Amino acid sequence: MNRSRLSIPVILLVASAPLAVAQVPMAQPVEAKAHFYTPTDLTWGAGPASLPAGVQAAVLEGNPTEAGPFTMRLKLPAGYRIAPHWHPAAEHVTVVSGVLYIGQGDKADTTGMRELPPGTFMLMPPRTAHYARTRGETVIQLHGIGPWGITYVNPADDPRPKPN
After folding, report:
1. Per-residue pLDDT for 29 more than 70?
2. Which of 12, 25, 79, 112 has the fewest CB atoms within 10 Å distance of its CB?
3. What is the DSSP letter of 54?
C-alpha cells in the first residue's frame, strides 16, 4: 500500500484533534478571590428543611441547592438524631467539634454506630444508607458537588412538609 495514502488520514485525524477538544465544555473557574472564615465570622441560620428541626447552617462556599461545589457547616444540638437516609452524591464530612456517631444500614442500630471525634473525616459513597446522632452540640463541615439532597429510607422520617 502507498504510504502517502495512509498518512493523509492520519494527518487529518491529528490536525482535527484540537478542534474536537475545543468543543468540550470546560469547568467554570473557581472565583479567584481568597475567602477566610473564623468561627466568629460565620452567620448561622435555620438548617435545611430536609433535616430534623434544631439544626443550624452556615454556607461557606457555593449554593448547596444548585449544581457545583459547595461547603457548609451544620451545628447539630446535643442528642440530635437523623434517621436512616442516603444522598445522591458522595457526602464528605469533617467533624469540627463535638462527637458524631454514624451507623450504616436501613435501620438505626445504636450498638453498631461508629464514634467520630473532632478532626475526623468521613466519606460516604452515593446512595449508601446511614444514620447519625450527636453527643453534645456538634459542628460538622459538609462539602460536595450540588445539588445536595437527602432521601429517607422510611418516607415517614422525612421532616419536610407533605403535599396535601
Report:
1. no
2. 25
3. T
Instruction: Look at residues 58, 59, 60, 63 and name the one whose alpha carbon lies nearest to residue 34.
Output: 60
CATH number of the structural domain 42-157: 2.60.120.10
Asked if omega into 147 is within 30° of 0 (cis), the reply is yes
Residue with cell 459547595: 70
Question: What residue type is assigned to position 155 of the chain?
Answer: P
Mean of pLDDT values over 22-30: 40
Following DSSP, what letter does each residue of 75-134 receive, concatenated?
A: EE-TT-EEEEEE-SS-EEEEEEEEEEEEEESSS--GGGPEEE-TT-EEEE-TT--EEEEE
Contact between 35 and 71 (Cβ < 8 Å): no
| 75-116 pLDDT tens trace | 999 999 999 999 999 999 999 999 999 999 999 998 989 999
Q: How far apart are CA 13 and CA 18, in angstroms?
A: 10
139 burial type by CB count under 10 A (0-12 exposed, 13-18 middle, 19+ buried): buried
